[in-house]
Amino acid sequence: MAVIAKRYGKALAEVSFKLGQHERVGRELSLFDELLNRYRELQLFYTNPVIPLPKKRSATNELLGRLGFCKETCNFILLLIDNHRVSYFGEICKAFRESLNGYLGVVQANVTTAFEVEGEIQARLRQKLENLTGKRVQLKFGISPALIGGVITRIGDTIYDGSIRQQLELIKNRLSSD
After folding, report:
1. Domains (ranges, CATH) in the chain?
2. Residuewise pLDDT in 10s, the chain (178 residues)
3. Nearest CA to 149 among 177, 121, 126?
4. Conformation bin of residue 143: beta by default, left when phi > 0, alpha when psi is -120 to 50
5. How crowded is residue 85: how many other Cβ atoms within 10 Å of its Cβ?
Protein backbone atom coordinates (compact mmCIF):
# COMPACT_ATOMS: atom_id res chain seq x y z
CA MET A 1 0.00 0.00 0.00
CA ALA A 2 1.31 3.43 -0.90
CA VAL A 3 2.47 5.73 1.88
CA ILE A 4 0.19 8.42 0.45
CA ALA A 5 -2.85 6.18 0.83
CA LYS A 6 -1.96 5.34 4.42
CA ARG A 7 -1.59 9.02 5.33
CA TYR A 8 -4.93 10.02 3.84
CA GLY A 9 -6.74 6.96 5.18
CA LYS A 10 -5.35 7.39 8.69
CA ALA A 11 -6.16 11.12 8.76
CA LEU A 12 -9.76 10.55 7.66
CA ALA A 13 -10.21 7.71 10.15
CA GLU A 14 -8.96 9.91 12.98
CA VAL A 15 -11.18 12.86 12.09
CA SER A 16 -14.32 10.84 11.37
CA PHE A 17 -13.86 8.78 14.56
CA LYS A 18 -13.49 11.92 16.69
CA LEU A 19 -16.64 13.36 15.10
CA GLY A 20 -18.56 10.12 15.52
CA GLN A 21 -19.13 9.92 11.76
CA HIS A 22 -16.84 6.94 11.07
CA GLU A 23 -19.61 4.46 10.18
CA ARG A 24 -21.31 6.83 7.77
CA VAL A 25 -18.03 7.97 6.22
CA GLY A 26 -17.03 4.32 5.78
CA ARG A 27 -20.29 3.49 3.98
CA GLU A 28 -19.97 6.55 1.74
CA LEU A 29 -16.35 5.80 0.87
CA SER A 30 -17.34 2.26 -0.09
CA LEU A 31 -20.14 3.56 -2.29
CA PHE A 32 -17.87 6.08 -4.05
CA ASP A 33 -15.19 3.41 -4.51
CA GLU A 34 -17.81 1.12 -6.02
CA LEU A 35 -18.83 3.87 -8.44
CA LEU A 36 -15.22 4.45 -9.47
CA ASN A 37 -14.71 0.73 -10.05
CA ARG A 38 -17.99 0.24 -11.90
CA TYR A 39 -17.77 3.26 -14.21
CA ARG A 40 -14.45 3.51 -16.01
CA GLU A 41 -15.52 6.87 -17.46
CA LEU A 42 -15.71 8.30 -13.94
CA GLN A 43 -12.16 7.14 -13.22
CA LEU A 44 -10.95 8.67 -16.46
CA PHE A 45 -12.77 11.91 -15.66
CA TYR A 46 -10.89 12.30 -12.37
CA THR A 47 -7.48 11.24 -13.68
CA ASN A 48 -7.59 13.25 -16.91
CA PRO A 49 -5.26 16.25 -16.46
CA VAL A 50 -6.95 18.16 -19.32
CA ILE A 51 -10.22 18.55 -17.39
CA PRO A 52 -9.90 21.63 -15.16
CA LEU A 53 -10.25 21.24 -11.39
CA PRO A 54 -13.26 23.59 -11.12
CA LYS A 55 -15.18 21.37 -13.53
CA LYS A 56 -14.22 18.22 -11.56
CA ARG A 57 -15.21 19.91 -8.28
CA SER A 58 -18.53 21.11 -9.66
CA ALA A 59 -19.47 17.71 -11.09
CA THR A 60 -18.38 16.00 -7.87
CA ASN A 61 -20.40 18.38 -5.69
CA GLU A 62 -23.48 17.63 -7.78
CA LEU A 63 -22.90 13.86 -7.65
CA LEU A 64 -22.21 13.77 -3.91
CA GLY A 65 -25.21 16.02 -3.24
CA ARG A 66 -27.49 13.61 -5.11
CA LEU A 67 -26.02 10.71 -3.14
CA GLY A 68 -26.58 12.57 0.13
CA PHE A 69 -23.00 12.27 1.37
CA CYS A 70 -22.09 13.98 4.64
CA LYS A 71 -19.88 17.07 4.79
CA GLU A 72 -16.82 15.11 5.98
CA THR A 73 -16.91 12.67 3.07
CA CYS A 74 -17.58 15.43 0.54
CA ASN A 75 -14.71 17.56 1.80
CA PHE A 76 -12.39 14.56 1.79
CA ILE A 77 -13.21 13.55 -1.78
CA LEU A 78 -12.82 17.16 -2.94
CA LEU A 79 -9.44 17.29 -1.18
CA LEU A 80 -8.36 14.18 -3.09
CA ILE A 81 -9.46 15.82 -6.34
CA ASP A 82 -7.58 19.03 -5.56
CA ASN A 83 -4.42 17.07 -4.75
CA HIS A 84 -4.75 14.69 -7.74
CA ARG A 85 -5.07 11.63 -5.47
CA VAL A 86 -8.30 10.03 -6.73
CA SER A 87 -6.23 7.31 -8.43
CA TYR A 88 -5.32 6.10 -4.91
CA PHE A 89 -8.95 5.95 -3.78
CA GLY A 90 -9.18 2.17 -3.40
CA GLU A 91 -5.98 2.03 -1.37
CA ILE A 92 -7.10 5.00 0.73
CA CYS A 93 -10.37 3.19 1.54
CA LYS A 94 -8.42 0.14 2.65
CA ALA A 95 -6.09 2.27 4.80
CA PHE A 96 -9.14 4.04 6.27
CA ARG A 97 -10.71 0.71 7.29
CA GLU A 98 -7.43 -0.53 8.79
CA SER A 99 -6.90 2.65 10.79
CA LEU A 100 -10.52 2.73 11.90
CA ASN A 101 -10.28 -0.88 13.05
CA GLY A 102 -7.35 0.19 15.21
CA TYR A 103 -9.52 2.83 16.90
CA LEU A 104 -12.34 0.33 17.35
CA GLY A 105 -10.12 -2.47 18.66
CA VAL A 106 -10.93 -4.77 15.75
CA VAL A 107 -8.56 -7.03 13.80
CA GLN A 108 -9.15 -8.74 10.47
CA ALA A 109 -8.44 -12.47 10.37
CA ASN A 110 -8.08 -14.13 6.98
CA VAL A 111 -9.00 -17.77 7.41
CA THR A 112 -8.24 -20.37 4.75
CA THR A 113 -9.81 -23.82 4.89
CA ALA A 114 -10.17 -26.81 2.58
CA PHE A 115 -13.96 -26.49 2.57
CA GLU A 116 -16.73 -24.09 3.54
CA VAL A 117 -17.06 -23.56 7.29
CA GLU A 118 -20.46 -23.52 9.00
CA GLY A 119 -21.79 -20.83 11.34
CA GLU A 120 -21.18 -22.66 14.62
CA ILE A 121 -17.56 -23.42 13.75
CA GLN A 122 -17.09 -19.83 12.59
CA ALA A 123 -18.39 -18.57 15.94
CA ARG A 124 -16.06 -20.88 17.90
CA LEU A 125 -13.08 -19.87 15.77
CA ARG A 126 -13.93 -16.17 16.22
CA GLN A 127 -14.16 -16.66 20.00
CA LYS A 128 -10.78 -18.44 20.16
CA LEU A 129 -9.12 -15.73 18.07
CA GLU A 130 -10.67 -12.98 20.20
CA ASN A 131 -9.31 -14.68 23.32
CA LEU A 132 -5.91 -14.99 21.64
CA THR A 133 -5.70 -11.37 20.42
CA GLY A 134 -7.73 -9.60 23.11
CA LYS A 135 -9.58 -7.74 20.33
CA ARG A 136 -12.77 -8.14 18.36
CA VAL A 137 -12.13 -10.25 15.29
CA GLN A 138 -13.66 -9.91 11.83
CA LEU A 139 -13.35 -13.16 9.93
CA LYS A 140 -12.80 -13.31 6.21
CA PHE A 141 -12.95 -16.84 4.82
CA GLY A 142 -11.29 -18.32 1.78
CA ILE A 143 -11.16 -21.85 0.45
CA SER A 144 -8.01 -23.50 -0.86
CA PRO A 145 -8.27 -26.91 -2.50
CA ALA A 146 -4.53 -27.32 -1.86
CA LEU A 147 -5.26 -27.77 1.85
CA ILE A 148 -5.87 -31.35 2.90
CA GLY A 149 -7.69 -30.18 6.00
CA GLY A 150 -7.34 -27.90 8.99
CA VAL A 151 -7.14 -24.14 8.94
CA ILE A 152 -4.59 -21.41 8.23
CA THR A 153 -5.30 -18.04 9.84
CA ARG A 154 -3.53 -14.78 9.13
CA ILE A 155 -3.91 -11.79 11.43
CA GLY A 156 -1.74 -8.91 10.28
CA ASP A 157 1.75 -10.32 9.77
CA THR A 158 1.16 -13.36 11.99
CA ILE A 159 0.21 -16.73 10.51
CA TYR A 160 -1.32 -19.52 12.59
CA ASP A 161 -0.90 -22.71 10.57
CA GLY A 162 -3.19 -25.44 11.84
CA SER A 163 -3.29 -27.31 8.55
CA ILE A 164 -2.92 -31.07 8.39
CA ARG A 165 0.10 -30.62 6.12
CA GLN A 166 1.81 -28.53 8.82
CA GLN A 167 0.92 -31.09 11.50
CA LEU A 168 2.37 -33.90 9.37
CA GLU A 169 5.52 -31.85 8.81
CA LEU A 170 5.92 -31.34 12.57
CA ILE A 171 5.52 -35.09 13.19
CA LYS A 172 8.08 -35.85 10.47
CA ASN A 173 10.57 -33.43 12.03
CA ARG A 174 10.10 -34.97 15.49
CA LEU A 175 10.56 -38.49 14.20
CA SER A 176 13.67 -37.59 12.18
CA SER A 177 15.30 -35.77 15.13
CA ASP A 178 14.94 -38.75 17.50
Report:
1. 3-102 (1.10.520.20), 106-177 (3.40.30)
2. 689 999 999 999 999 999 999 999 999 999 999 999 999 999 999 999 999 999 999 999 999 999 999 999 999 999 999 999 999 999 999 999 999 998 998 988 999 998 888 889 899 999 999 999 889 999 999 999 888 888 899 998 889 888 888 888 888 888 887 6
3. 121
4. beta
5. 19
